[in-house]
Amino acid sequence: MAIQNKAVSKDLIFQAITDSFKKLNPLVMIKNPVMFVVEVGTLITLILSIKPDIFGVSTGGRGYNVAVFFILFFTVLFANFAEALAEGRGKAQADTLRKTKSETMAKVKQKDGSYKELPSTSLRKGDIVRVDTGEMIPSDGEIIEGLASIDESAITGESAPVIKEAGGDFSSVTGGTRVVSDFIIVKIITDPGESFLDRMISLVEGASRQKTPNEMALTTLLAVLTLIFLFVIMTLVLIADYLKVHLDVATLIALLVCLIPTTIGGLLSAIGIAGMNRVTQFNVLAMSGKAVEAAGDIDTMILDKTGTITFGNRMASAFVPVANVSEQEVTFAALQASVKDETPEGRSVVELARKQGVHWDEKEYDGAGIIEFTAETRMSGLTLKNGIEIRKGAVDAIKKYVADKSGSVPVDLDEKATVIAKAGGTPLAVAINHKIYGLIYLKDTVKPGLKERFAELRAMGIKTVMCTGDNPLTAATIAKEAGVDEFIAEAKPEDKIAAIKKEQEEGKLVAMTGDGTNDAPALAQADVGLAMNSGTMAAKEAANMIDLDSDPTKLLSVIAIGKQLLITRGALTTFSISNDIAKYFAIIPALFITFIPPLQSLNIMGLASPKSAILSALIFNAIIIPLLIPIAMKGAKYKAMSANKLLSRNLFIYGFGGVVVPFIGIKIIDMIVAAFHLA
Amino acid sequence: MTMGLIQVVVTLLIAGLLVKPVGTYLVKVFDYETTGLDRFFRPGERFIYRLIGVREKESMGWKKYVFAMLLTNFIMMMFMYVIFRIQKFLPLNPDMIDNMPPALAFNTAASFITNTNWQAYSGENSLSYLSQMIAITFPMFTSAATGFAVAIAFIRGLVARQNNLGNFYVDLIRSITRVFLPLSFIVALFLVFQGVPQTLHGAADATTLEDAKQMITRGPVASLESIKHIGTNGGGYFGTNSSHPFENPTPLSNLMEILCMLLLPTALVYAFGVMIKNKRQGWSIFAAMGIMFLVFLSIVFIAEYNGTPALHALGVHGNMEGKEVRFGISGSALFTAVTTAATTGSVNNMHDSLTPIGGLVPLGEMMLNNVFGGKGVGLLNGLLYVILTVFICGLMVGRTPEFLGKKIESKEVKLASIALLVHPVLILVSTAIAFVTPSAISSIANPGSHGLTEVLYAFTSGAANNGSAFAGLGANTTFYNIAIGLVMLLGRYISIIAMLAIAGSFATKKVAAATSGTFRTDTPLFTGILVVIIVVIGALTFFPALALGPIAEHLGMFH
């Protein structure tokens, strides 16, 4: 995506500050029950600041009430700011996209066959448009005629144009991309406002953001905890009244706000939005937050071999001599056959030879006759100026070639070729004139670093399944090399669905990637389906995520983001609840001390005065929100490890830390408050 | 103190040894497949099923199960109420006891149908023998069996593949025929051997050594006494409950009663592990409950042995006020910790006379309500906290939280929230209402923090369906009878309904496969987290009220 995700800019912060005030609207606030209670508390303390004795004698006095009011007010603002900041990032991304979506004119085919210029917004499903060189494609569609290179950088950020043509898996075009050469006739497949770009804008902007299932569940729990504490405080007033203990209203509100989970309540929606943003920053477009959450739960990943696990093009991995030829000789012969070969296979031969320490003079081969590979001959090579013919190609083609020159086929050629084929490789024979020198061992290569990532996944309890059209032997070799847990060889599209269903019946959640139209049913069946942007519209529609860079390995990152999202929520909830212990020790003695002096022994932090204790706890409660915004935005640190290790680690940091930090924090704030005689 | 400690250790050791065999037996009792027990019990049970028209094979979804439970309980409660109201005109009333007034009859019926056994009356002068037998002893069986049934139903839901929690009537009848009746019979015989009366004769007239006339009340005590503890009911035959020499005559009967209280609540946790085919899971929850129990026990034990500064000043060590000499401090402290842990509610000493911190222990156990807890419902409450713990901490491993492979989603959290909310709200709101009601305040015997604790204790006991009284509170007033009656009913049925709804929802969920990425709930680490979550949520909720009550009183002793 052509979106720059710079660190938080000044504009963004300014916008977020403005928004945090707008969000004070109670109708907006009520969606967040925890912060709504704080807002109501703020209003009551505002009244108490104006008329301190409205609910009976205010023991704290006006100055104290004003202080409580401001701290509460900032608590609400901080929470709003976190949310606004997270939303702001999405909005900035959306604005960039919206510029792409500027009004364009489209040449629409009329009933009489002529083309008429109409605004792109008037396009409807089924309209036929013509797009010429340099023009913007007005809306999503399928090419029904023609072939063109298209610049999709507006959406993918990838500047190299891609070729799209009618028919097949590369016929879908996206509105907002530009035709760089040739022309195409496109059948529009979406109505205005429903195009890919529209959906993308509304997704990154968070306009269509719905609370995810887990977020809803957590909101419920937080609301109930808030309700319990509301009951605790309200009944406390009446119970204390029996002991002739009359509690100060501002202090009670302070206690309530300290106890309800404001930290997680204030950051919860920011965590969700930021999680979506992180996915977007990876250039992956998640159709819903639910999909991102589901990614964290994935138990099994089904990956295509070609393009995902391997590079997909076969590379030379060894030179195998036959008969009485030496390894140096076959290497040099293979090199000569490939010097002028610009195919990936050819280049990989040259690369391998160089690695093996072969030196040669490029100039020697200038002016040599280049024999291109064709489907009939199935070989390629050079004819040197001195008439020497060097060829490489399919084994039987080379055999036929030397036989025609009445050369002989070495006895061990077939045997060695079979060994290579059985190991999952492709043998290429090399011959100079009528003599066969040996074989080039071409192999599909596993992408570097994947083996380690699969091992990480295994540690996290995620099983990887490789899907390939190769024969079982080849599949087994690659599977072993990549370190996947299982593989499906000679897989047909139906096999993929069957594999997904089988895993799902065992109670597992399955993720997969795909791009072709025949992947669409499997993408829809999977719990997380990641479609490649280069793929067909059908695949993209069926998937719940689209990778704009068309890099299938991104699935691994998406899973990590999903996990991180859930961890962040759990971690901050734990932190928030753990904090309450210290706050109780600060406020309870302060609350009752004048009536029940022995309760002073609960003041284990040795806070200066009841007022400073309450204000310190409240200040701590407020500033912890902005301090935790970075964690909410970036997500809690996540490394791949087993659930038990992860739990122990996070429990220590956020659980134990959550108990200890406020004791220290409140004490420090109290010392400052006392030093300046603020209370 | 050493002797006392040995007594405690020996008692707990015996209780510990009984967990596995009894738990294994319980699993068999509720196994619908044919078991060896059938030959012995089936014929009688089949007769009962025919008699009341139960279709034994009928399976029930959660709604049907709840409906059957509520209907049965409602009819029984109405029946009990009527008996109390007309006992004067019914047979087996040798001491010519009058009818109960409406509010007290409501309170008593609510109390015994909910397994609370809060007693606003004194048995010896408020109930006829018939009432004692069919409106007190009878619901002691059925209420315990109801609690058992719902716990078993919940466990079935956890492991079920479809919305089938079993058959309530079969569960109810089986728990009575296969567990409570045989056990009660044996224990009753043992108690008779120890000197507990079992007779239908009226009160005995005795002439004391000083030639004074004394009327000694008696009755079918042993039969009530045995189910009172086995069913964790707690309602005594006499007003002074298990401190009365006819209810609990010897240290040996005291030991027996403690063992009876612990027997089924502890064994059920083990049975849970067996039923879900993960014994480690059962033990990890058992450990959490056990740790909390031991901590509470130690607190009351030490507090009572330490006594108070005022007693120290008199040269008296340890607090014997309100305790029976034949049980001593250790026998009393252990009984206190056990009776409120297992939410039995019988007392062998006056909790009102415990030291403030000692008195905090029974209060605290009832507030948590899951330190083993009452018959069945204790396990349910424990599992409620397990679900909450899994939900909060399970997120920290980066997956949607799941327990036994069932995902905990919005619906379960909502239902669990209701169950979580109801207990503190009932306690705090009813206590607060009491303190703004002049008639309720006038029932309080002691002023200040102690009086506050008396009221708080009464409602906590009601909400936890414990039934033990702190004493010192004249609870037989219209206000307390109605208020505590309602608290008992709401405290029991709302959480049971919510929990069975969760079971129903779990039952239809797909079971997620466990991998190394799954949050393990059968480890010592989980036990630790569970304890912390239970204590922290409990402490956060009740700390302010406790600070004004027992904590303030305790700290006040030193000033």
TrEMBL record, chain A:
- NCBIfam families to which the protein is assigned, alphabetical: ATPase_P-type (TIGR01494), kdpB (TIGR01497)
Q: Membrane-crossing residues?
A: 32-50, 62-82, 218-240, 252-274, 581-600, 612-631, 651-676
Domain P-type ATPase A: from-to ranges: 103-205
Source organism per entry reads Neobacillus rhizosphaerae
**Pfam families per record:** E1-E2_ATPase (PF00122), Hydrolase (PF00702)
Q: What is its EC number?
A: 7.2.2.6
Q: Which CDD domains match?
A: P-type_ATPase_K
What is this protein's name?
Potassium-transporting ATPase ATP-binding subunit
Q: What does this protein do?
A: Part of the high-affinity ATP-driven potassium transport (or Kdp) system, which catalyzes the hydrolysis of ATP coupled with the electrogenic transport of potassium into the cytoplasm. This subunit is responsible for energy coupling to the transport system and for the release of the potassium ions to the cytoplasm.
Record-listed Mg(2+) binding positions: D515, D519
Query: Keyword set for this entry?
Result: ATP-binding, Cell membrane, Ion transport, Magnesium, Membrane, Metal-binding, Nucleotide-binding, Phosphoprotein, Potassium, Potassium transport, Translocase, Transmembrane, Transmembrane helix, Transport
From TrEMBL, chain B:
Localization in the cell: Cell membrane
The protein's role, per its UniProt record: Part of the high-affinity ATP-driven potassium transport (or Kdp) system, which catalyzes the hydrolysis of ATP coupled with the electrogenic transport of potassium into the cytoplasm. This subunit binds the extracellular potassium ions and delivers the ions to the membrane domain of KdpB through an intramembrane tunnel.
- Transmembrane region(s): 65-84, 133-155, 176-196, 255-276, 283-303, 376-397, 418-441, 479-504, 525-552
Coiled coil regions, renumbered to chain: none
* Lineage of producing organism: Bacteria, Bacillati, Bacillota, Bacilli, Bacillales
UniProt entry tagged with the keyword Nucleotide-binding: no
Q: Which UniProt keywords apply?
A: Cell membrane, Ion transport, Membrane, Potassium, Potassium transport, Transmembrane, Transmembrane helix, Transport
The name this protein carries in UniProt is: Potassium-transporting ATPase potassium-binding subunit
Where does the UniProt annotation place the signal sequence? Answer: none
How does the protein associate with the membrane? Answer: Multi-pass membrane protein
The UniProt entry lists the main location of this chain as membrane
Tell me which InterPro entries the record gives: KdpA
User: Which domain of life, per UniProt?
Assistant: Bacteria
Q: Does the keyword Transmembrane apply?
A: yes
The record's note on quaternary structure and interaction partners says: The system is composed of three essential subunits: KdpA, KdpB and KdpC.
Q: Which family does it belong to?
A: Belongs to the KdpA family.
**Source gene?**
kdpA
